[in-house]
Design brief:
84% of the residues lie in helices and 0% in strands. The protein is mostly helical and 121 residues long. The relative contact order is 0.10.
């Protein structure tokens, strides 16, 4: 399951750099959950041909990620933004319990809003 998720992420980031045929095979395999035999039958090639094409495409995606690291950076930024949102919530809750500064509350909400907007991009 983890490999499928990882491949789906890599396809999202680097799929446009693959050939149309490679993208289609990966899409059938990972998104449509077709077996190698089903893809082979639909495409009129051998099961081994499909397997080889998918393995080559997977290796290309992994190589691109190893060189560029875009997916990892994106995941790190998403994790950081989620952490910022959590701290913003803690600041707001602390402020409600210990003083109720309108400025602190407004800043906390603004920080959370910006972080949530960046997560949606």
């Amino acid at each position: 399951m983890a490999k499928n998720y990882e491949m789906a992420i890599l396809i999202d980031f680097y799929g446009d750099m693959l050939t149309e045929k490679q993208r289609n095979f990966l899409d059938y395999y990972y998104n449509d959950d077709l077996s190698l035999s089903e893809i082979a039958e639909n495409e009129g090639i051998t099961r081994q041909g499909v397997r080889d094409a998918i393995k080559r495409a997977e290796n290309q995606l992994i190589d691109m990620e190893n060189k560029l690291g875009a997916a990892k950076r994106f995941q790190d930024m998403s994790d950081g933004l989620k952490e910022i949102i959590g701290y913003s919530d803690k600041i707001t809750q602390y402020n409600l319990r210990h003083g109720l500064s309108k400025e602190i509350n407004d800043y906390g909400l603004s920080i959370k809003s910006v972080a949530m907007t960046l997560l949606e991009i």
